[in-house]
Amino acid sequence: MSSSAVAEPSVSAKSKNTPGRVVLASLIGTSIEFYDFYVYATAAVLVFPALFFANTDDATVALLSSFAVFGVAFVARPVGALFFGHFGDKYGRKVTLVASLLTMGISTFIIGLLPTFDTIGYWAPALLVLMRFGQGLGLGGEWSGAVLVATENAPPGKRAFWGTFPQLGAPIGFIIANGVFLMINWLLPHPDDPTQASEAFLAWGWRIPFLVSAVMVIVGLWVRLSLVESDSFTRVVKEGAVRKLPLTAVFKSSWRNLIIGTFAMVATYSLFYLMTTFTLTFGTKPTIGQVTAGGAALPADYVSGLGFGRNDFILMMIVGVIFFGLFTLISGPFADALGRRKLLIWVTIAIILFGFTFTLFLGGNADDNPRFVGAMAMAFLIIGFTLMGMTFGPMGALLPELFPANVRYTGSAFAYNLASILGAAVAPFIAVWLWSVGGGNPWLVGIYLSSMGVLTLIALLASKETKDDDYEGNIQ
């Protein structure tokens, strides 16, 4: 039942795990993984509706189809959590992290090579679904391994702060992915309509970010291959506590914490994917005035947005994500001092209240006062991403602390990724539908976010503080 034959060589090399190497390995891996993931998220709005779902003349149906494929990865993530979590708890964090990174990277690279609907018909979206599943499979095993590398090597009393470094991969990956898209779009010829992508971008430019990911994956592999196992895992091996079936052990001994961990992440996931995928769609959708300019007829049941050019709004989002990264780091020391539970309860209450402000920030009419609408949209992005950093940062410590060391990879990965289905997989799809039902006003989208926040608040109130628990010696 023990995996000592696999893990014990790492014990003698333990001294080579310097703080700088641990931080870099946990940060660079998640940055690459999230870069890959966000490249797809951006393309799901900018190009995939036109290139892979050209079988419909209804732009809304094409967009919803693209978001449905976007959600496939979230279905795959719990599968990846179970698969990679099993091996991470049996054979160690290092080899599992390398495998998850390769799975994600190869899937992303192949997306950049896929032929479109006009070339191979329905095979195009089918292959896109398959590669999207591969992306989700890899990310399902990535996050938990990265946060365990950070937190299991953290100095006493600093787990939440060290746990924010892999969390920084989310804003860093987002900025790089969208920055690459932005640069490519700027270098290519611009269309007359600033809300549309250029012909060159649709023809081949969109492929570059997917193909570039191969270089980043190679760098990530080089860093991670230099890692050795943590004291927590080597202690599990020495004590013969490696479980034959970690998932069974998790459900047997930690089922309550599995539920709490899952719902503790629901608001975090919902907020992030509303702040990124939905707002990009809403912010760049033309206003009624833009559509009817020059006497053009307004399509039946048209749902308007803010009418920003794509490049302009992506720049605004990057500014917001800078606040995301900053407050992710800030949240760590606060969570170490105040406790994970107390901090997250107050942040979740703020998220619930934020959901009631969507109309205030996004309900303006850019046809009447574009500067005011732009300022309010920027304020919305800054506030939303600030809250995102404050709720996402402490999760790097909270979720692993809910589970014993010998099933920690499986437990934290499964809770994290199961929450992705409940909080993120359906969020863009539901948001677009609620936006349509609201006649172009996003107030129902805000109510949806608040309802997810209530679920998270209940989970946090039902949990206990974990910051002073015996992290290394907690073995069952």
Automatic annotation (TrEMBL):
Subcellular location, principal: membrane
Annotated Major facilitator superfamily (MFS) profile domain residues: 22-467
GO cellular component: plasma membrane
Keyword Heme in annotation: no
InterPro entries attached to this UniProt entry: MFS_dom, MFS_sugar_transport-like, MFS_trans_sf, Sugar_transporter_CS
Gene3D superfamilies named in the record: MFS general substrate transporter like domains
Topology class, membrane: Multi-pass membrane protein
Transmembrane feature ranges: 37-55, 61-83, 95-114, 160-184, 204-225, 258-276, 313-331, 343-366, 372-393, 414-436, 442-462
Cellular localization per UniProt: Cell membrane
PROSITE patterns: MFS, SUGAR_TRANSPORT_1
UniProt entry keywords in alphabetical sequence: Cell membrane, Membrane, Symport, Transmembrane, Transmembrane helix, Transport
Origin superkingdom: Bacteria
GO molecular function, one term: symporter activity
Keyword Cell membrane listed: yes
Stated family: Belongs to the major facilitator superfamily. Metabolite:H+ Symporter (MHS) family (TC 2.A.1.6) family.
Function: May be a proton symporter involved in the uptake of osmolytes such as proline and glycine betaine.
Protein name: Putative proline/betaine transporter
